[in-house]
Amino acid sequence: MSLKTIIRLQKLQLDEKRRVLAELHTLADRLRNEIEKVKQEIVHEQETVRDDFSVSFTYSNFAQAAMERGRKLGESLGQVEAQIEIATDEMAEAFQELKRYELAEEERQKRERDKQKRKDAAMLDETALVGFRRRQAEEEAAGG
After folding, report:
1. In the chain, where does DSSP find H-type helix?
2. Alpha carbon distance 39, 110 (integer Å)
3. Which residues of 20-52 are buried (b: 16+ CB within 10 A; e: fewer)?
4. Tens digits of per-residue pLDDT, 7-53?
5. What is the pTM for the complete model shown?
6. Are 28 and 76 a contacting pair, CB within 8 Å?
């Protein structure tokens, strides 16, 4: 398998890891928003209870359910954040591997260019030497 093919494959893998990481960040943001919503609902219900005492009998059940929901959302957020750390590390590793292959390809191309330059220089040297010998032979024939 050529380095160019490996580089293409590594780029695809890196793009996939970036996509997964972006999805995890989006999920974490949604969970944070949900947690904030639950907090706002609790505050709103507390204000309602302050304003209307008759509602206070149902507040306890609401508060318990809301706090449980908030706890579960917090656990989910913790799990997603752990996955984000892992995905970030995996993406960094994939990026480093891609860079290694790209550097290897650049080095290979540089060696090819240097080899071609040496070939070209040798050909020019040979051409110059042939021309020099021909002129020398012409001078000897003309002078001799």
Report:
1. 3-51, 56-143
2. 61
3. ebeebeebbeebeebbeebeeebeebeeebeee
4. 999 999 999 999 999 999 999 999 999 999 999 999 998 888 888 77
5. 0.72
6. no
